């Protein structure tokens, strides 16, 4: 998978919002140490978490499965614009037979030979159906869950905290855990203190 951070709100916007409550603007330091300590104290420790909603992150996420997508879409406090199979499935129409060497272009492989081989079969079935000029709206019903997709995903810092807590956990699906880790890694270094405590620190074993 690939995760790119396209844009984000600078931290002073959040500290400025917090200072609005007390009208203490003159005590700010334009996103410096004082402002960061304020965000941590008010947003994280005092749980006045709505102040974190002023910080927005816009990500582009590529090469994740539709199995992951349906879990990601459960996070209602985020905005998604997803590559539509209704318009894009024709990308498979003129492909030669998909093999284990070429499959990763279209599907997320698990490393389990039996599962991956079943996924490649499903992909070839779909390819044949598309080759017979079946409409994309009908053909999409036999898409395997491993089919890769991509999306623009925007989320505020409060909701991202919730997402990272739930999805970096060892009880989350392995692929969405990988996404949670990649999202955290893509954040600007100076923002990571807002989310550090949300990241699961134990081993990956379930
Ligand atoms: C390990 C794991 C296993 C899961 N298994 C299943 C499963 O088997 N079946 C299944 O259906 N789902 C499952 N889920 C999905 C889960 O139920 C949530 O839908 C998903 O994690 C999104 O979480 P959220 O509602 O906190 O996030 P968001 O939808 O982004 O909401 C963010 C926060 O806003 C508030 N909020 C949002 N909507 C409401 C509302 N209507 N009322 C009150 N407060 C609201 C809540 O505080 C919520 O935490 C699983 C999730 C995890 C992490």
Structure notes:
With 206 residues, this protein is an alpha+beta fold. The chain has a domain at 2-61 and 150-198: Gyrase A, domain 2, CATH 3.30.1360. The protein contains 8 helices and 4 strands; from the N terminus they run βααβαβαααβαα. Strands 1-2-4-3 form a 4-stranded antiparallel sheet. The structure holds flavin-adenine dinucleotide.
* Count of DSSP-assigned helices: 8
Radius of gyration: 21 Å
Low-confidence stretches: none
List cofactors, ions and other ligands.
flavin-adenine dinucleotide
DSSP strand tally: 4
The CATH class assignment of the domain at 2-61 and 150-198 is: Alpha Beta
Q: Which sequence of strands runs across the widest sheet?
A: 1-2-4-3
> Share of helix among residues?
40-55%
Give the integer mean of the pLDDT values: 95
SSE sequence, one letter per element: EHHEHEHHHEHH
> What global shape is seen?
elongated
Largest sheet: 4 strands, antiparallel
Question: In what range is the share of β-strand residues?
Answer: 5-15%
**Distance between the amino and carboxyl termini:** 22 Å
Question: Judging by the overall fold, what is the CATH architecture of the domain at 2-61 and 150-198?
Answer: 2-Layer Sandwich
CATH topology of the domain at 2-61 and 150-198: Gyrase A, domain 2
Q: What kind of assembly state do the chains in view correspond to?
A: single chain
The SS-based structural class is: alpha+beta
């Amino acid at each position: 998978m690939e995760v790119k951070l396209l844009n984000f709100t600078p931290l002073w916007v959040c500290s400025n919002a917090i200072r609005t409550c007390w009208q203490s603007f003159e005590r700010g330091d334009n996103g410096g140490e004082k402002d960061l300590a304020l965000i941590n104290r008010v947003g994280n420790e005092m749980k006045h978490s709505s102040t974190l909603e002023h910080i927005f992150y816009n990500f582009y996420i590529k090469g994740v499965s539709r199995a992951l997508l349906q879990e990601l879409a459960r996070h209602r406090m985020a905005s998604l614009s997803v590559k539509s199979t209704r318009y894009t499935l024709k990308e498979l129409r003129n492909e030669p037979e998909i093999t284990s060497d070429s499959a990763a272009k279209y599907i997320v492989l698990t490393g389990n030979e039996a599962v991956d081989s079943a996924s490649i079969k499903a992909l070839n079935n779909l390819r044949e159906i598309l080759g017979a000029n079946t409409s994309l709206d009908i053909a999409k019903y036999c898409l395997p869950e491993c089919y890769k997709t991509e999306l623009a995903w925007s989320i505020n810092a409060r909701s991202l905290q919730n997402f990272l807590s739930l999805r970096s956990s060892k009880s989350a699906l392995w692929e969405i855990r990988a996404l949670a880790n990649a999202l955290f890694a893509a954040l600007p270094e100076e923002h990571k203190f807002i989310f550090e405590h949300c990241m699961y620190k134990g081993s990956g074993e379930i």
